[in-house]
Amino acid sequence: MLIKSADVRKAKNNKPFIAFTFQDKSGQIDGKFWDAKEEDINRFQAGTVVFVSGKRELYQNNPQLRISKMRLAQAGEPSSPELYMERAPIRTEDMIEEINQTLFEITSAPINRVVRYLLKKFHKEFFDFPAAKRHHHAFPGGLSFHTISILRLAKTVVKNYPGVSQSLLYGGVILHDIGKTIELTGSLSTEYTLKGNLIGHIVLIDEEITKACEALKISEDNEDIILLKHVVLAHHGKMEYGSPVLPHLLEAEIIHYLDNLDASINMIDTALQRTTEGSFSERIFGLENRSFYKPNVTPPAQTE
Amino acid sequence: MLIKSADVRKAKNNKPFIAFTFQDKSGQIDGKFWDAKEEDINRFQAGTVVFVSGKRELYQNNPQLRISKMRLAQAGEPSSPELYMERAPIRTEDMIEEINQTLFEITSAPINRVVRYLLKKFHKEFFDFPAAKRHHHAFPGGLSFHTISILRLAKTVVKNYPGVSQSLLYGGVILHDIGKTIELTGSLSTEYTLKGNLIGHIVLIDEEITKACEALKISEDNEDIILLKHVVLAHHGKMEYGSPVLPHLLEAEIIHYLDNLDASINMIDTALQRTTEGSFSERIFGLENRSFYKPNVTPPAQTE
Amino acid sequence: MLIKSADVRKAKNNKPFIAFTFQDKSGQIDGKFWDAKEEDINRFQAGTVVFVSGKRELYQNNPQLRISKMRLAQAGEPSSPELYMERAPIRTEDMIEEINQTLFEITSAPINRVVRYLLKKFHKEFFDFPAAKRHHHAFPGGLSFHTISILRLAKTVVKNYPGVSQSLLYGGVILHDIGKTIELTGSLSTEYTLKGNLIGHIVLIDEEITKACEALKISEDNEDIILLKHVVLAHHGKMEYGSPVLPHLLEAEIIHYLDNLDASINMIDTALQRTTEGSFSERIFGLENRSFYKPNVTPPAQTE
Amino acid sequence: MLIKSADVRKAKNNKPFIAFTFQDKSGQIDGKFWDAKEEDINRFQAGTVVFVSGKRELYQNNPQLRISKMRLAQAGEPSSPELYMERAPIRTEDMIEEINQTLFEITSAPINRVVRYLLKKFHKEFFDFPAAKRHHHAFPGGLSFHTISILRLAKTVVKNYPGVSQSLLYGGVILHDIGKTIELTGSLSTEYTLKGNLIGHIVLIDEEITKACEALKISEDNEDIILLKHVVLAHHGKMEYGSPVLPHLLEAEIIHYLDNLDASINMIDTALQRTTEGSFSERIFGLENRSFYKPNVTPPAQTE
Amino acid sequence: MLIKSADVRKAKNNKPFIAFTFQDKSGQIDGKFWDAKEEDINRFQAGTVVFVSGKRELYQNNPQLRISKMRLAQAGEPSSPELYMERAPIRTEDMIEEINQTLFEITSAPINRVVRYLLKKFHKEFFDFPAAKRHHHAFPGGLSFHTISILRLAKTVVKNYPGVSQSLLYGGVILHDIGKTIELTGSLSTEYTLKGNLIGHIVLIDEEITKACEALKISEDNEDIILLKHVVLAHHGKMEYGSPVLPHLLEAEIIHYLDNLDASINMIDTALQRTTEGSFSERIFGLENRSFYKPNVTPPAQTE
Amino acid sequence: MLIKSADVRKAKNNKPFIAFTFQDKSGQIDGKFWDAKEEDINRFQAGTVVFVSGKRELYQNNPQLRISKMRLAQAGEPSSPELYMERAPIRTEDMIEEINQTLFEITSAPINRVVRYLLKKFHKEFFDFPAAKRHHHAFPGGLSFHTISILRLAKTVVKNYPGVSQSLLYGGVILHDIGKTIELTGSLSTEYTLKGNLIGHIVLIDEEITKACEALKISEDNEDIILLKHVVLAHHGKMEYGSPVLPHLLEAEIIHYLDNLDASINMIDTALQRTTEGSFSERIFGLENRSFYKPNVTPPAQTE
Q1: Element (H, E) at B18
Q2: In chain E, which residue's Cα lies nearest the Cα of A213?
Q3: What DSSP designation does B49 have?
């Protein structure tokens, strides 16, 4: 397993212990390492691959690992962190391909050029960063995976509702969270940058569109650019969630809903994976602390 | 045009006038008929087809008809209200067919049986009622059209997110607003019934599921039935919007978002139809009084 | 004393301890049992009667029992849990009698028949269940005691305000919380059922009225039945507290106030019983975390 | 009828008209007097008794008088305003007697003395003022009638809940709104005074208790006095409704509920008096703009 | 007087009238021109200087001009709109000088350069635009006057509180509202631009800082620039007021308070100018609809 | 160092420990004393001067003292608590002088006399009490220091905005928080008094003004007195913050803003003193749990 975070604390008996979060592809689990010695603290740091044996227990309804033994990966054993990290369920190449295909459907020239410019500028980060520090899609590649999930819903919307501009909708979806590549520090031990804290990803992407227009010599008064900026600025849907303007375009309203829908499904899905059938999940902070019920699997077409 | 509503009021000069809302397939428009005589009031009532000439004006930014002449349909002229009413853009037969196809994908027997039972019981109303008195899909057939629009989005969701139960999702979508057939009086001059005012469509459909189970001899403790009821009860998403419980099922959360998304698109779409390119619509009451911008049409792939 | 709950946790020194809540007729008190062995955990489970000696201490302003010795009841000693439980201060027979007397004042036939039918159906639970899992009247018989306390206030209201319908008011009071018998699991170790979590006691009782009407062949369009349902559905007073409709009947508004008043008095009363004169109680979660002052007893007619 | 208020306005045709509210013992009704001449304006002022003939009409669902003829009371006709005013349904002497009886149950000497002192000081106003400018009990004597209605409920509470201090509860009820005699100008054409607008009746009565203690040489540190002040200051129950402190005494919480209950019943009752059976009342501003349903009278013990 | 706005409406008798707002240096007043003919509508348009005689009246507590005669300025009479417009009480030259002096106290080089660059870019608009469309400082030069008023308060703050950065505080104050020069259309008949509606002045100024840094070759990672952007972005203090980030810098918090304080004083001051001593002003929309009392002038050192 | 508070608690291993807050002039720090014996608990009580050696550590981002040795002050060592307490950065004599000078600018006789009377009555407490139990200016002399800081800002306001009454503004500032001398117990181990909890400092000072008028024979109907009371009652600005009336005077609005501004600066300043450059402070409870960034010191006039 990979040590995702390692937090040294003091027990009430005054001895240090380490509060771990372990990660493998099946998910995460917490575990406490009691009576930690100086050497343990140095050895077992975040980002290290370790082999742990112990028992899975419930602590205040949350699963926890009761550690009995723990050691570093030895020579010959797999020790690369990447092997243990949760990843997007689509391969990066496929995500790149899917995004590229979508670009052909963005027929507004200024929007198309700005989107291509920024995808190129942030290419590496876009396919590597998580979509959030903790709440949803918090794994490497989460940002692009979240974006693609919304794009797929957006395409159904375009098909079903005639008046929608696909340039604006797809352009807005692709850019809506790309400011997170500046807001956050990266895909491991993700933290907020100073710009992230003081400016925020919503305004950061607006700045990037502004600079892209300067570089591409697109007028800042071009209506399509103003609309694109609006769609990105308004995508949190409410001012109290950090959008400096409320949605005043059909496409802004749609992106707001699809963004929330995809994030919610991911949060619920993640919580339900750790829940037993027939019981309720932990409370999900990002969903007003609601817990969700995981139904008992019903064989299809049962009869009473 | 069809007189959708006719409200007799008193002018400040103490003479009666009639405040009309006219309807034809292109939309609605208001108009005032000044110095109305007794016979005008009797002749020009809601539900009547009339021929009006006059000028379209703006009154406090809302279009209004300045009536210069107005008369009843004469013999030989079309006078059936149905001809002038906005209708769902899909034919009723096609909607019936689409719903029926969907029923095959509801593989949970209790959900399938309850949904069929209630669709049969409310068949006529379901394909005739509006989805709301005023806010969205406020036209004959609006209820089934709204339902089908959500179903289409729901099918994309099922395709993209593996964990979702299609029985619960499709069953919930089909039933979520069917209580409106009891809450409202019908497709013309729609008002709230006493049950609509005092019980509300959310609880009314829950009662119908309860009675359907009694009739079909399905146990009220069947988990699928409890889940179906929950999905319907929680579909307003927040208690302050009238759901007695918050969503605690993945499918309940999804229906809540898709319902809001479809209703919002319809409200914005309706408002933009009455708006000139390059300007803002009227404020939309159901969307926190926001007005929406109707962009200038940009020829595709323009260059700056 | 009775062990009301026994929660095995891990101390920071990694040894298990048991967090008890003890109950006798004078109230409840918490206590921790340190360094619990396997046999202690098995022996001292919730629902067991034990003999404990120790010292009452304050821990963060809450009284707590510092356990020095603890053993099971021996042969010859009282060991029935019922002996130690807090109970309603009125005997069950007297509550039954008082409810029955009230039925004669419900002169609307449909309301009278539905109330009798449901009282009979839930007779055992109604006089045994608590009124809530934790907040107020959380003891066996609490539900009927809470109901009777409100009924007594309701009778003063009927006497003082001429326009009030006593059928609707008394019928509504008796049924308003009876759905808790389905929402909760019982009077000991009370938890929420799946129906309680996903449907809620407000809709559950509405379903019961619906089924009662079917059984009694009372039309669901009978106005008195619609009013009775409304009064029950609206009794939480605000949508954000779980009522799917706001009160639109005088009697609904009155029940809402009396319900809150009785629950508040019970919560404050319970908190003040554990508070010293001249100081403030713990914060009461159900009353916006307010604490209440317990005045010094003033001898009557004192002079300064 | 009595002219309760007469508001001269300008019609859209630029001629003055008078917007009247008429009052007789059966209630109030509005009416507009068109094309008012100088002499009409002078003659028909608020506080005058007039004889009006006309027709009762509905204007936007509110009843209104369409005035056809209107004249002053002539010699020999009753012309005293008192004859036409709505009054409390209890005679002033009986209210005085009921308050006086209650004083004997206030056994705390400092509370008893302060209450007697202030009742004496504001005797005339207390039995003459309305309880509010407009919302509830807005008629002469409304203040004392509102007080007595609450007192009656309070006595049931004392009987049913053993821990309640009747000195504090009854003292608090009697004083809770007596500051309105300073906040408002009187029982006719009631307006807010400068003190009412800038200090408010809640603090004004606190000041009066302070001065009463000085006059009666009761220490301001006497606990009963502090409690009495608290009960009065906290009676609006929430800070956003103007109480500078939240209720922290059982009796403060009770008065808050009973005050709201009595005011709500009076508002609903007043609205229902103007409503036809089987329909909904106007929206009541003081009750979050809800309208209330007036049921069809059901003959007792009907059978379906 | 200057016609500030002229709104043609239809009276209830169906004839057009003009709703004027007149402006001279002493303030504004509304007035209605009844039975307006085609030529009146053409002649009396916004931005025209007119001579009006009539009577000042109160209409629903707001002063209004009852127009008896009205004509255009004749040859030889003053007819330039500028003569009649309210203006900032400081001369433009003095404001320029005061701003320039302040620049010397901005010792951070990047902040100083950006502020100078933007002041130069928007020089004309900054000293000509109002500070808002309607709420506060809604007159030519209002933007710079509002800025200078805050700067004066800011200098006291710097003097009294040692830890405050004057570079950040003064730079932030000068730029905080300069985006209004893009958000609004100008100083006469002020409206929102498309960018104003869809992006808003807070993000617009952030974009300008971004472009200024590109032009001046200042790194966008320079901490002072990040801080300056934050201070501007956060100056509305709360997200629901349109700031995409909450204040996380001492200087951001201070600017937020001083901005609100100056705007409030200006709104109250403007309202009190139209209010008689000893009475309450109109309700001020920008201050939660509160009205403000204008005290009677008390001769200094009076004695009671 | 001074022991500011000493809280005996039980560790999870069941042994008592002491949770200290130490104070010297440089600020405060927490520290835990493990395995405390009876004599340690008696010796090391709040208000005692001790000599401590140990190591400064971070515990969940908050600095904490890891105590290695601790003893009482010995003979010859400084042991007076006053020596170690944080104090206002202005000497008491200077504060007295500054307040006295201000009194000459209060030219309204009734306001001047009331302010002098109350300053005299509460002289000792006013210059000794903190301005709050914990949030801001929580040190001896904090109340008068907070008052003087606001006064200085108020004087700039008077200079910049002509319409402001300095009598009302300065009088209001001086009295606005003086009720805290009754609300709180003193400058050490500050707690709320019963009056503080049940009446609150806002109403307490209103009572004091009332009694001062009685003593000085100033009529309670004097307009200046009503205005002064209003300014004090409304200074929390919003009802939900405990003001029983909203500001309806220009001066009330100004005091509200200046009070908040000064308190906020003090809270941020205090938090930043404990924060390293280039990082964020702890969350500040009184400022909606925001944390504030402490910038890296930039040498003036740097160049990139």
Answers
A1: strand B16-24
A2: E211
A3: B
Report the 10 Å Cβ neighbour count for D152: 18
Q: Answer whether E46's CB lies under 8 Å from E23's CB.
A: no
Nearest CA in chain B to E11: B12
pLDDT tens for the 304 residues of chain E, in order: 888 778 787 776 667 888 888 877 767 788 888 888 888 888 888 778 888 888 877 665 567 888 888 888 887 787 777 777 777 888 999 999 999 999 999 999 999 999 999 999 999 999 999 998 877 888 889 999 999 999 999 999 999 998 899 999 999 999 999 999 999 998 877 889 999 999 999 999 999 999 999 999 999 999 999 999 999 999 999 888 889 999 999 999 999 999 999 999 999 998 998 888 999 998 998 999 999 999 997 554 444 4
Q: Out of D222, D249, D303, whose CB is closest to C292?
A: D249
Report the alpha-carbon distance of residue F207 to residue D220 in Å, rounded: 10
Closest residue in B to D35 (Cα) is B13
Q: B107, B190, B95: which is closest to B144 by C-alpha?
A: B95
Longest dimension (CA), chain C: 69
d(CA E64, CA E100): 42
SS3 D202: helix
DSSP E strands in chain C: the ranges are 2-10, 16-24, 27-33, 50-59, 62-72, 279-280, 293-294
Angstrom CA distances, A157 to A161, A169, B155, E285, stand at 6, 10, 12, 40
What is the ipTM, given to two decimal places? 0.83
The answer to whether the CB of B65 falls within 8 A of the CB of B22 is yes
D102: number of Cβ within 10 Å: 21
Rounded to an integer, what distance in angstroms lies between the CA atom of residue B30 and that of residue B1?
Answer: 12
**In 10 A of CB C1, how many CB atoms?**
22
Q: Residue E25 corresponds to which amino acid?
A: K
From chain D, pick out residues whose CB is under 8 angstroms from the CB of C224.
298
Helices (H) and strands (E) in chain C, counts: 11, 7
Cα D218 from Cα C139, distance rounded (Å): 44
Q: Do B197 and D13 touch (CB under 8 A)?
A: no
Given a contact cutoff of 8 angstroms between Cβ atoms, the answer to whether F32 and F67 are in contact is yes
Best probe of the D interface among B8, B10, B12, by most D CBs < 10 A, is: B12
Q: Is B47 in contact with B85 (CB distance < 8 Å)?
A: no
Contact E116, E172 (CB under 8 A): no
Answer left, alpha or beta for residue A14, where phi above 0 means left and psi between -120 and 50 means alpha: left
What value, to the nearest 5°, has the Cα angle with vertex A142 and ends A136 and A146? Answer: 75
Q: Which residues contact F218 (CB under 8 A, 6 or more apart)?
A: E304, F110, F113, F114, F212, F225
* Predicted TM-score of the model (pTM): 0.87
Instruction: Name all chains with 3 or more CB-CB pairs below 8 Å to chain E.
Output: A, B, D, F
| Chains in touch with F (≥3 Cβ pairs < 8 A) | A, C, D, E
Under 8 Å between Cβ of E227 and F295? yes
Radius of gyration for the alpha carbons in chain B, expressed in angstroms and rounded: 22
Q: How far apart are CA A87 and CA D259, in angstroms?
A: 60
Q: Strand, coil or helix: what is E83? A: helix
Helix (H) or strand (E) segment spanning residue D22: strand D16-24
Structural domains for chain C: 2-84 (2.40.50.140), 92-266 (no CATH)
Cα distance between residue C24 and residue C49, in whole Å: 10
The answer to whether E10 and E58 have CB atoms below 8 angstroms apart is no
User: C293-299: which pairs have CB atoms within 8 A and are 24 or more residues apart?
Assistant: C293/D227, C293/D248, C293/D249, C293/F194, C293/F197, C293/F198, C295/D165, C295/D168, C295/D223, C295/D227, C295/D249, C296/D223, C298/D108, C298/D223, C298/D224
Q: Residue C15 corresponds to which tokens in the numbers above?
A: 């040894």
